[in-house]
Amino acid sequence: QVQLVESRGGLVQAGGSLRLSCVASGRASTTYAVAWFRQALGQAREFVAAITWGGGGTYYADSVKGRFTISRENANNTMWLQMSRLKPEDTAVYYCAATSQLWVPRNSRDYDYWGQGTQVTVSS
Q1: Hey, which of 23, 39, 91, 105 would disulfide with 110, CB 3.0 to 4.6 Å?
Q2: How many CB atoms lie within 10 A of CB 90?
Q3: What is the mean pLDDT of the chain?
């Protein structure tokens, strides 16, 4: 089993920045990649960004490309999502997820482990 714990989100004004972290424990070494998803009220859960533990390849949704940066530190099994130039439409519950698939999925169904989620609210 793998446990994922996200840092607390928060409230930020539009144009501002916020950094989320996710720490993996347990059998984190059995996972290939970690990702962030988000779910706005009444909306489906959507892919935000992903990174592989090994090569560090990164993947982004078009809606966040150029504004968000995903990174990781293998020694501490920690992953971060640096969010800049935030917009009100970025408001959502953000989830950290990990997959054992040997590729980087963008569909939430392909992720095996999930954090509890953290609220990010961007005010206009």
Answers
A1: 105
A2: 22
A3: 95
